[in-house]
UniProtKB/TrEMBL annotation:
A GO term, aspect molecular function: cation binding
Top EC class, one word: hydrolase
Protein name as annotated: Alpha-amylase
Family per similarity comment: Belongs to the glycosyl hydrolase 13 family.
Keyword Thylakoid set for record: no
Keywords assigned by UniProt, alphabetized: Carbohydrate metabolism, Glycosidase, Hydrolase
A Pfam family it matches: Alpha-amylase
Enzyme Commission number: 3.2.1.1
Catalytic function, reaction form: Endohydrolysis of (1->4)-alpha-D-glucosidic linkages in polysaccharides containing three or more (1->4)-alpha-linked D-glucose units
Amino acid sequence: MRIRDTGDLWWKSAVIYCLDVETYMDWNDDGIGDLPGLVQRIDHLAELGVTCLWLMPFYPTADRDDGYDITDYLGVDPRLGDAGDLVELIRTANDRGIRVIADLVVNHTSDRHPWFRSARRSPDSPYRDWYVWRQDAPPDTSDQVVFPDKEDGIWTYDEQAQAWYRHRFYKHQPDLNTANPQVRDAIAKTIGYWAQMGLDGFRVDAVPFFLADAANTQGDDIDHPHEFLQQLRAFLSRRTGDSILMGEVNLPYDQQRLFFGDHTGDGDHEGAELNLQFDFVLMQQMYLALARHDAGPIADTLRARPVIPSDAQWATFVRNHDELTLDKLSDDERQEVFDAFGPEPEHQLFDRGLRRRLPPMLEGDPRRVRMVYSLLFSLPGTPVLFYGEEIGMGENLAAEGRLAVRTPMQWTSGKNGGFSRAAPSRLSGPVPDGPYAPAHVNVSDQRRDPDSLLNFVQKLARRYRESPELGWTERAEILDQPHPSVLAHRSTWQDASMVALHNLGPEAVRVPLHLPDTDEGWRLIDLLQDDEHVPSSTGRVEIELEGYGYRWLRLASPGSRRLL
């Protein structure tokens, strides 16, 4: 096993952690999290095992969409700090072995961005063509809106401009025209600037949307939308070498494959594009499997994953910062998940997703919560954690929409969960109450409890990093066994191999496995508890698995020199 290979393509076996500076740690006690506060908590991330920190938008903003309505791509929101504070964060994180990436939001700007303010003033403005306009009244586009509870179409008439402008998201977020070479240059300059400041890459927001216009203008120098993404990847690679683009592409697998740069379906490079893509398909099938206590949807999805270029990777996750979207499930399947994990209208959002965190959805059952995170880290891919998952934070349904899961980080059992010493009314968001309040769920208490979820997730991160086969395997091998509730999969890379077992049901089972490539002297070493199993001479072994139980079994050949 060539461990040194993992250092070249670091993103294939990273542990990524997403946070919003505004809700993480308030150091000047004004009620808003800030960069100096985040620096003070870098050691928490290092101890957790995080190797890549993903920052949600920290740019100047009109703050009507939690920072995703940007007014200056080259600045830092003064509420959070300044450019010097960001540099100190990057330097401190790098010292702890943590790379830093940030959101790249280039599908749209805020309507208060200087570009749009100029564009709407006059048809002769140099920025007029930086956005998408039309003079005639648009047809009904209610079926194209991203937020159906907020907008009834994707075009809004602007009185000052005397024209309609397009916005696929909120009306205060006009779409940039990426067919315009000047817009593409501005995006490249943004990437280059932050790379020069020390960022190791970007999580690219809404990738299919911002590519949609790239080849729309007759005579444009982009012949195909994906050429633009290829150019951005090449530009970033020239500037910083091993920086990444991690894309939000919520599409079926056959379409996601294109965004890796594979346009023939053979898993080879035809033009490097995104390094990583979030596996929305697998995430949604995981929740269907959890609702049914049946591992079949996960197994079928892993089998259906396309082969991707060798230096590309799937980003796996339990939930992210948005609603927990279930849009790729059928209506009946989505209702199954709603019935199991979000039966009340206040739990649901946009008729397609849930605004809840995992522990409340699982009624606080620690067995199920741990099983799910064990499953996450064992799936082929790169695990992505959303802040607070490591301690089992809950949501606050009193917050509006998707903000229900973007509540302040809970550090202690004290006032405001130790996030800030400001008055609660001044906080960037409401702290959860009830069983998930800071009095019951916080970092400080769990640091001192060897049986806490925090310590369990630390162990998962450590074992994952010690097991490159989990990130580097080409695809999982689904192992035959008789229990519908059990997912048994094997990940192999070079001479390293691991079997992972997860029981999605409440009943204990005995799982028979056949591993024909093992013979006398082989052992299965459990990486999560002090246990081992010895296959028979024909490679057969049976594993006891309690209700919601899990096992990580490293295959150790005679004479293996791996640390066990």
